[in-house]
Amino acid sequence: QVQLVQSGGGLVQAGGSLGLSCAASVRISRLNHMGWYRQAPGKERQLVALSLGEDITYAESVKGRFTMSADNAKNTMILQMNNLKPEDTAVYYCYAVQITGPRNYEYWGQGTQVTVSS
Predict the structure, then answer these.
(1) Integer distance in angstroms from the first to the last C-alpha of the chain?
(2) Using one digit for the tens of pLDDT, what is the confidence trace for 55-88?
(3) Of 1, 52, 65, 76, which residue has the fewest beta carbons closer than 10 angstroms?
(4) Distance CA 101, CA 65 (A)
(5) What are the CA-CA distances from residue 106 to residues 6, 9, 65, 87, 100 (Å)?
(6) What is the dihedral of CA 88, 18, 78, 99, to 10 degrees?
(7) What's phi and psi for 110, nearest 5 deg?
(8) DSSP letter string over the chain?
């Protein structure tokens, strides 16, 4: 069982920056995939960034503004968000997949509110 605990987020004006952290209860190297999703009110959860091995895929809407990284020493995933826009307002979730034999286990953080004012 893997636990993901999020921190960060909050309220920022358009054009500002925020960082989100997601601390894992296991070594990040034991997680096969990691990423971030978000869900705006009345909308479906959508992918923000996903790490598959050495590659990171970003949603078109955040490319060039958001950066996903990892602090292996702290077993923490980080999402740095710059030049934020009101449409980035959503609850953000970190996500991880651990593949054990033939089974994939998915884990989610508790969610963090990000609000961008215009």
Answers:
(1) 40
(2) 999 999 999 999 999 999 999 999 999 999 999 9
(3) 1
(4) 36
(5) 16, 23, 27, 27, 11
(6) -20
(7) -80, -10
(8) ---EEEEE-EEEETT--EEEEEEESS-GGG-SEEEEEEE-TTS--EEEEEEETTEEEE-GGGTTTEEEEEEGGGTEEEEEE-S--GGG-EEEEEEEEEEETTEEEEEE---EEEEEE-
